[in-house]
Design goal:
Strand 4, helix 4 and strand 5 form a beta-alpha-beta unit. This protein is α/β, with parallel strands linked by helices and 256 residues long. Helix content is 47%, strand content 15%.
C-alpha cells in the first residue's frame, strides 16, 4: 500500500517540471490526483502518464491566478475526486530579465506576483472549505530559497516567494486547530524546463548557471524527484505534527 493511499490530491502547475513529477509520484503512492494546468494538451499528457502507469488522474484546467479560474480548478477537482485531502500549490513563473530593482518593468513585477502569490491565495481560499469538509488535510506551497536569500536581479520572484511563506504561515495558524496543515518547500536551483528556459534566454546565462552551481555545497542542482519525495512526506501521515514550516531543500545553498 502506498503512503498516500486514499488521498485525493490537487497539484497545480502539473503540466511540467516539479508539478508533473509530484503528480506522477502521488499517483504511484496511491493518491487520486487532479492535475492542474493552463495548457490542455500538456496537462492531459500528465494525466495520460499517470493512467498508463495504473494510477487515477483527472484534468483540472484553468488559470489559478484568476478568481473564476482558481474556483473552477479547485471545485472541479473536488467534484471529480469526491473531495480533497491534499493540495500542492506549485504553479509559478519567473522572468529571464534579471535587472536591478529600479529597472524592473512594473507589468512584469505585477504578473509574477499575480501568478506566484495571488494564485496560491486563491487556490487556498477555495480549497480550504473542501479540506475542512474532509476533516482536515495538507497544503504544500512551492516556495523557493529566494524567499530567504537574495538572487540579485530577481526581485519580483523573491518577493512573491517570501509572501508565499507568510501566506502558508497564516493558514497553519488559522486552520491548525481545524486539522489543516500548511507548509512550504523552498527549493534551490532544480533541473526543470523553467530553469533551463530562464538560463538559456538570459544574457550571460551560462556564467550565471555556473556561479549558482558552485554555491550549492552538495555540488549539483536538485532533481524534480527529490522535491516530489518531500511533497509526499508532507502530505503523508509521517508529517502529522508538521505545520507552519518553511523547509529549505536546496543542497545547502541557503547556508553558504
Amino acid at each position: 500500500m502506498g503512503r498516500l493511499e486514499g488521498t485525493r490530491a490537487l497539484v497545480t502547475g502539473a503540466s511540467s517540471g516539479i508539478g508533473r513529477e509530484v503528480a506522477n509520484r502521488f499517483a504511484r503512492e496511491g493518491a487520486a490526483v487532479a492535475v492542474g494546468g493552463r495548457d490542455r494538451e500538456r496537462t492531459q499528457r500528465t494525466v495520460d502518464e499517470i493512467v498508463a502507469a495504473g494510477g487515477t488522474a483527472v484534468v483540472a484546467l484553468g488559470d489559478v491566478s484568476e478568481v473564476e479560474g482558481a474556483r473552477s480548478v479547485v471545485d472541479g477537482a473536488a467534484a471529480a475526486l469526491g473531495g480533497l485531502d491534499a493540495v500542492v500549490d506549485n504553479a509559478g513563473i519567473d522572468t529571464s530579465t534579471w535587472v536591478p530593482l529600479h529597472e524592473w518593468e512594473v507589468d512584469t513585477f505585477d504578473e509574477i506576483l499575480r501568478v506566484n502569490l495571488r494564485g496560491p491565495f486563491l487556490v487556498s481560499k477555495f480549497a480550504i472549505p473542501h479540506l475542512l469538509e474532509a476533516g482536515g488535510g495538507s497544503i504544500v506551497h512551492m516556495s523557493s530559497v529566494c524567499a530567504i536569500t537574495v538572487w540579485e536581479g530577481d526581485c519580483g520572484y523573491a518577493v512573491s516567494k517570501a509572501g508565499l511563506n507568510m501566506l502558508s504561515d497564516h493558514i497553519a495558524v488559522e486552520y491548525g486547530p481545524r486539522g489543516i496543515r500548511s507548509n512550504t518547500l523552498m527549493p534551490g536551483a532544480i533541473e526543470t524546463e523553467l530553469h533551463r528556459s530562464v538560463m538559456d534566454s538570459m544574457e550571460g546565462g551560462a556564467e550565471m548557471e555556473a556561479s549558482l552551481r558552485v554555491k550549492h555545497p552538495i555540488g549539483r542542482f536538485g532533481r524534480v524527484d527529490e522535491i516530489a519525495d518531500a511533497c509526499v512526506f508532507l502530505c503523508a501521515d509521517e508529517a502529522r505534527f508538521m505545520t507552519g514550516a518553511n523547509i529549505s531543500i536546496d543542497g545547502g545553498y541557503s547556508r553558504v
